[in-house]
Amino acid sequence: MHVAMPPHSVLVIRNGREYSDNAYLKFCEANPNLRVERSAEGEIIIVPPAGYESDYRNTDVVAQLASWATRDGRGRASGPAAQFFLPGGSALSPGAAWVSNESQKRMSERERKSFPCVCPEFVVEVLSPSDRFKRAPATMERWIANGAQLAWLIDSDKQTVYVYQKDQPVETRRAFSSWQARARSKASLFTCAASGMG
Fold first, then answer.
1. Which of 19, 37, 81, 82 is most exposed by smallest CB count within 10 Å?
2. For the purposes of burial, counting CB atoms within 10 Å of the CB of 174, is it exposed (0-12), middle (13-18) or buried (19 or more)?
């Protein structure tokens, strides 16, 4: 089946039934070229590729997080190809994620090779053209509600980072490139996040 989508649009499939984890995995396996997520309501959400600029920005975040995680040793980083089954029923792929060694120990061998039933402690989303800002904060709140301790929403065009934590108001950090430079001078951007992950 060929699906034609307008540029920067998101396709939501509502078929009146919820996909079980196994049915959803089979759907993803049958459609490997699609970027697919599942809402808590059981909707299948198909989004277009991010585009060059959004992708290189996200790749930079993943590279920095992976480098920090390797030096830190308390967990592992992943990029947007990893997807997580969350306690609330969603199946989401963050732009970048960090999962502690403790959480990894709870994963089965099968989960490690597929979509683990665990919420990363730290997630980063980089806004892309298909991410309408009105929709993005709800995604960040969903990460926090499902167990993430810290979540960053990066709007590179506005040079702004929105910081989400449980039971805390959203913190807005503007002109993040200078903040990013200061963080890099301390060895890593993500050293700043470590205190927020307990």
1. 81
2. exposed
pTM: 0.81
Strands ordered across the beta sheet of 91-92? 11-13, 44-47, 35-38, 91-92, 84-85
d(CA 45, CA 5) in angstroms, rounded, equals 13
Residue type, 23: A
Q: What is the pairing mode between strands 11-13 and 44-47?
A: antiparallel
**Do the beta carbons of residue 125 and residue 98 sit within 8 Å?**
no
Instruction: Characterize the bridge pairing of strands 91-92 and 84-85.
Output: antiparallel
Vertex 197 angle, CA 196 and 198, to 5°? 95
- In this structure, the number of other CB atoms found within 10 A of the CB of residue 168 comes to 11
CA distance 151 to 84: 15
| Sequence-separated (6 or more) residues with CB below 8 Å from residue 141 | 164
pLDDT in tens, 9-19: 555 565 545 67
What share of the chain in percent tops pLDDT 70?
A: 75
